[in-house]
Fold:
Amino acid sequence: MDHPKISEDYLESASFFDIFNEEDYFLHDKTVEGEFVEKQIINHPIIEKTIFEHVTFSECDFDKLELTDVIFKGCDLSNCLLTKASLYRVEFQNCKMIGVNLDKSYFNNVLFKNCLMDLGNINQANLKETSFESSSLKDMSFNENKLKQVFFDDCDLNKMTILSTKLKGMDFSSCRFETIDIEESGIKGLKVNAEQATFLARYFLGIKVSY
Structure:
């Protein structure tokens, strides 16, 4: 997976609100730290080669957000509407993203690491070379997605809903869930551990496994 192409030596300290200085809502080559951005509504904001650290985006609506070579560190994007977003070489590290909505978005080389994404929505999306690492995806809606080289490592998938999505080539064996809403037609080629296999056998076939 390709990482964001950012040279921190060339970044300037800025405010997120500088995006309003450009007619096309464009922010680039910046570092933004410790800001609180509340209930902002921007259609098609474009952000490139920028690092956000400890920035809170509270209930913002950024429809058709376009991110290229962007890193979020310790940020809060809970309950933000980021529908129809395009994400290219983007990393979310140690971010709180409860209830975030990324429906109908395109992901290419995207990393979610140590993120809290419970109750989030990623539906009708196209994900390519995307990794979820050591993150919580409990109660997430993850339906009607197209996946290519998507990885889940050490994630909590409990009560996740995964419908109308082919999981061939995916590996859930290092992840955890007590229950998950999933379709039998979608699990062909999915790698799971023994405990998960027992759940799926019981879920789909009513098989009881004794030890």
